[in-house]
Amino acid sequence: MPALTxxxxxxxxxxxxxxxxxxxxxxxxxxxxxxxxxIVIPKVPARIKEWAYAGFTFDFLFAAISHGxxxxxxxxxFFPLVVLAILAVSYIYYHKNLANSSSKLDH
Length: 107
Hints:
Layout: H1 2-5, H2 9-17, H3 22-40, H4 46-71, H5 78-106
């Protein structure tokens, strides 16, 4: 598992700069990989996908808040919010596909 959780020095410094311990960055990497797999693998149950989307939402919101609290309002807080917007588009289309699949099964 060490290879999976390895981060660049830049990422490790970013975690330290925000005041989080190094293990927190490792945990984020593991949960993000699991979350991505839950979202992209079609056979994963919808309830698990919902939790993955929720987890990413919290992650990106708190990343923006952490950057704002430590560095003030600057460009660093906007990147997680941009990624959150992309996630929101994914979530919307996930539900549209889910609705279309459901309506096809009804007919």
